[in-house]
Amino acid sequence: MEKSFPLHECHVNKVTIIINRTHAILHSIAILFLIHYRLSFFFQHPQNITIPTLPWLLIFVSELILSFAWFLQQACRWRPVYRNVFPERLPVDDKLPAIDVFICTADPKKEPSVEVMNTVISAMALDYPPEKLHVYISDDAGSDVTLRCTKEAWNFAKYWVPFRRKYGLLTACPDVYFSSSEDDNGDYKGSEFKAERKKMEEKYEVLKQGLRKIVEGHFTTNVAINNTRDHPTIIEVINKEEDEVKMPQLIYVSREKRPSHNHNFKAGALNVLLRVSAMISNSSYILILDCDMYCNDPTSARKAMCFHCDSQTPSSLAFVQFPQTFRNISQDDIYDNQIRFAFKVHWYGFDGVGGPIISGSNFYIKREALLGSFNKQQEDYFTGLNLHRKGWKSVYLNPERQQFLGTSTTNLNDSLIQWTRWTSGPVTVALSRFCPLTYGSLKMSLVQVLCYSELAFMPLLNCLSLWGFAIIPQLCLFNGIPLYPKVSDPNFNIFSVILVSSILKSLYEVVTTGEQLKVWRNEWRIWMMRSVTCYTYGCFDVILNKLGMKEATFLPTNKVTDDEQVKLYEMGVFDFRTATVFLAPLVTVILINIAAFVGAVVKALVVDDDGDQYWEKMFGQMFLSFFILISNFAVIEGMIIRRDKAKIPLSSTLWSVVFSMFILLIGSVILC
């Protein structure tokens, strides 16, 4: 009997597990000591209490919330696993299952047609039998621009796809191939290849010019623009005729939308694609891509099939998730666009306890699992939760070569808007009857339930705790009220251990995932920024929607690049040209910390006769303010030092001064 070799393998990193669990135990013990210290305050004799109860209670609640968030995070570190695949062991092409590719676009103004069509072309150029590959582009705007651009992309793909196949190119996306400095010539470097490459590059330049003319001619003339919320259904098979060269099928789909009906955003578009594709191709597996997330490595389909086609894989496997990676990440990455904590830490932990969630893009899913699963605006998070709750499994594959590459935001405004939208989906689920703590226990392990809960509650827990840490100790510092033990008090060691433990663990994860120390600094800073801005507004948006005071909306991330913004991003300089609604809370927090810290230093050096005693008593709060200010020095620089166009506007600073003075005044009266 012939021996069957596995198509994939799974490794459990025991060293990482031991480190993670040991740290979790030690850190938990420190948190228990902190809770004991805070609770003992309430059992003192009233005559011995010299600190107001309200600020003590508020900071204790903030510490409990942050501790609960930390506890949920440990589920994602409980059992990380790592996977390898062997696509060379796959059966012959005739025995491979068919794949449908779904590409969703919503707004040709915010999603450049050149990028969208590169995604379409790269999907058609996957290393997979062309007769078993069907590419669907969903145009939710119903725009004539996208339809015409799709036809232009098809005309170019007729040349690009055979060219990539013939020479075995490692890059499926033409834009990346022709703009990259890497030597991707496949197995050929002769004169014939060079001549064909030059012709292909000329054809690609013609394609780009043609796409730009279509877009510019549509938006700069009096051509009627379709109403994005009111248009009929359009389904068009682009390659109707048989071609000499075998090509994947390309289908354009624009669903009917009417103002009187809820269209459910991307989830609605995907459900329509499921129905349309069932009538045309009905492939067993589906690859879902965002419009700017092109196929970088053409072998991703075969790598995913190493799981779906392996006889050793359980039939309950629903999807294979690849990470989202981006081609325009700068060396400094000040906005944390790579989302390291998710794709290099958490998703491995998810994989070890049942599989990662659906990450919105870059996953090959079984059609059987997907039918009827997409739910309103939370199509990714809720769909993953519902599948796992029913007993489906998933796996996470992160090969050394990036399989998919997209375009990340390059300015603070787009980044905060994007994270506000990303916040609203999981929080909506967390505050509904589908809360994973109560809804997710049917066929999910406790650890997997906690993993989903961490994602659902993370924005809410972070914004609540960070607002507490950013204001309460500072108000008390401003008024000379200690909330932390003296440096000489043994209880001070509790807070020191917790802080050092958190810093060392995060540093360890940054270093072991191959990143530099500045990534750790950037992640701490952007975490603070998001907590008081987009996490806060995302949670408010959900609450208002629950109360019926605001209708749910979907804002596509702006993918149009601005050369000036890109230059600042690559230099590691924040672009503060965003709405005052984002800047005001951020600057207000910084101003409150400046006032509290400077006031405390002046009091210790000039006013207080016993300066040493004051330093010892208030050191914890002074250090907290100093840490916040140092971590967010870029905000101070944007307010005071910078003179360029991307600085913080004077109007935003003035509004923040008013807000900070109001908080200092009212807070001092109420708390102290």
What is this structure's SSE topology?
Layout: E1 8-12, H1 14-41, H2 53-73, E2 81-85, E3 99-105, H3 113-124, E4 133-139, H4 144-167, H5 174-179, H6 191-219, E5 234-237, E6 249-254, H7 265-280, E7 285-290, E8 294-295, H8 300-308, E9 317-321, H9 340-351, E10 363-366, H10 367-370, H11 381-389, E11 393-396, E12 404-405, H12 412-430, H13 436-439, H14 446-478, H15 492-512, H16 517-532, H17 534-546, H18 563-571, H19 580-607, H20 611-631, H21 633-641, H22 650-671
Parallel strand pairs: 3-4, 3-7, 4-6, 9-11
Antiparallel strand pairs: 1-2, 5-6, 7-10, 8-12, 9-10
Helix pairs in contact: 1-2, 1-15, 2-14, 3-4, 4-6, 12-14, 12-17, 14-16, 14-17, 14-19, 14-20, 14-22, 16-17, 19-20, 19-22
Protein name: Cellulose synthase-like protein E1
Binding site for Mn(2+): 266, 290
Pfam family, one: Cellulose_synt
Structure description:
Keywords: Cell wall biogenesis/degradation, Glycosyltransferase, Membrane, Transferase, Transmembrane, Transmembrane helix. It holds the Pfam family Cellulose_synt. GO terms for molecular function: cellulose synthase (UDP-forming) activity. Mn(2+) binds at residues 266, 290. UDP-alpha-D-glucose binds at residues 110-111, 140. By secondary structure, this protein is α/β, with parallel strands linked by helices. Among the domains are: 98-296, no CATH class; 456-671, no CATH class. It contains 22 helices and twelve strands. It has helices at 14-41, 53-73, 113-124, 144-167, 174-179, 191-219, 265-280, 300-308, 340-351, 367-370, 381-389, 412-430, 436-439, 446-478, 492-512, 517-532, 534-546, 563-571, 580-607, 611-631, 633-641, 650-671, and strands at residues 8-12, 81-85, 99-105, 133-139, 234-237, 249-254, 285-290, 294-295, 317-321, 363-366, 393-396, 404-405. It has an eight-stranded mixed beta sheet, sandwiched between helices. A two-stranded antiparallel ribbon has the order 1-2. Strand 3 (99-105), helix 3 and strand 4 (133-139) form a beta-alpha-beta unit. It is globular and about 90 Å long. Residues 220-225 have low confidence and may be disordered.
